[in-house]
Amino acid sequence: IKLRARVEIEDVPSGRRQRIIVTELPFQVNKARLLEKIAELVKDKRIPGIQDLRDESDRDGMRMVIELKSGEIAKVVENQLYKFTQLEMTFGVIMLAVIDNKPKVLNLKEILEHFLDFRHT
Question: Are strands 88-90 and 102-105 parallel, antiparallel or unpaired?
Fold first, then answer.
């Protein structure tokens, strides 16, 4: 199962630049460590399109702002962030269920069928 952060792309009102706004993180991702990792990647020039990085989170919710350099394509930087950071995570899942008093590993379709049968009875 792949989990991704919730991301929005905004145009900066004062010019040709854009910013990436992160409003939700995947399960078990530490925001402070993620900010450090992004700053380290910018410093090492692995993600060269980022100009500024700041945390604008408050009591109303999480908001991480990634300002891009002028002329950078936001989708390219977003994909680099997914590739090099924990903005996208993969979890392995073993769908083990007890069917007819025996444990059995099921695929997604089978698990949904058994769940629907259970709900209808």
Answer: unpaired
**pLDDT averaged over 10-residue windows placed end to end, the chain, 121 residues:** 94 88 94 95 93 93 94 94 95 90 94 93 81
**Paired tokens of 31:** 């925001």
CB 63 within 8 A of CB 56: yes
CATH of 2-90, one of 3.40.50.800, 3.40.50.620, 3.30.1360.40, 2.40.280.10: 3.30.1360.40
| Adjacent-strand bridge partners of 61 | 58
Q: Residue 32: what pLDDT?
A: 94
Strand order in the sheet with 64-68: 6-11, 18-24, 64-68, 50-55
